[in-house]
Design a protein that fits this description.
Shape: globular
Largest sheet: 6 strands, mixed
Strand content: 15-25%
Structural class: alpha+beta
Helix content: 25-40%
Distance between the termini: 30 Å
CATH topology: Peptide Methionine Sulfoxide Reductase, Chain A
Radius of gyration: 17 Å
Number of strands: 8
CATH architecture: 2-Layer Sandwich
CATH superfamily: Peptide methionine sulphoxide reductase MsrA
Length: 215
């Protein structure tokens, strides 16, 4: 029965994504413009599966200036959504967070990241399967690297779940903003977003892993 239910959830989520793709098929697909980081602000990049779902938890944080959905970690320059979705570019869907370190720490961003992913699966997040959905922390400098590795080590020590942590920690390569229609998707298309998120079983799995609703 559980397998049947999971299959139905995956089918529903895939159907929604298919409908969304069809609706965008004839529309122009320009990438969003890169976000300039003003003096005093900092940048962080996290991959947690579908980038639609990684913007909301950061947008609600005081001190976060902007979130941008995009692609990172691959070989192809200026990839499109269709190319990344094929799994052949090496990129993963990610969110770039511009923040004010005086108001929110990188450590807090890391805490929010872990609580919004399943770090126990490789090349998959919830109903989305493929290397383009792998989880990762893409550090900008040695300080971010140190904090990211320390946070992972602490989680491995206090792990509230059985599976090993497979989330990668990698120096950030070039981040490519995704097409405009992907930005703030949860605000532009709230019904579709909620249907996809629920159909994919994201919140149910997060609660199972962490024992509480994601931050």
């Amino acid at each position: 029965m559980l397998k049947v239910r999971n299959a139905a959830l995956v089918f529903a989520a895939a159907l929604l994504l298919g409908l969304a793709a069809i609706s965008q098929a004839q529309a122009p697909k320009p990438p969003a413009k890169p976000v300039a980081v003003k003096p005093g602000y900092a940048r962080a990049v996290f991959a947690g599966g579908c980038f639609w779902c990684m913007e909301p938890p950061y947008d609600k944080l005081d001190g976060v200036v902007s979130t941008t959905s995009g692609y990172i970690g691959g070989q192809k320059k200026n990839p499109t959504y269709e190319e990344v979705s094929s799994g052949r570019t090496g990129h993963t869907e990610a969110v770039e967070v511009v923040y004010d370190p005086k108001k929110v720490s990188y450590q807090k961003l890391l805490d929010v990241f872990w609580r919004n992913i399943d770090p126990t699966v490789k090349d998959q997040q919830f109903c989305d399967v493929g290397s383009q959905y792998r989880t990762g922390i893409f550090y900008q400098d040695d300080d971010q690297k140190r904090l990211a590795e320390a946070s992972k080590a602490a989680l491995e020590k206090s792990r509230p779940f059985k599976g090993a942590i497979v989330t990668e920690i990698t120096r950030a390569s070039e981040f490519y903003p995704a097409e405009d229609y992907h930005q703030d998707y949860y605000l532009k298309n709230p019904v579709r977003y909620k249907f996809y998120r629920n159909g994919c079983g994201r919140d149910a799995r997060l609660k199972q892993l962490w024992g509480a609703a994601p931050e």
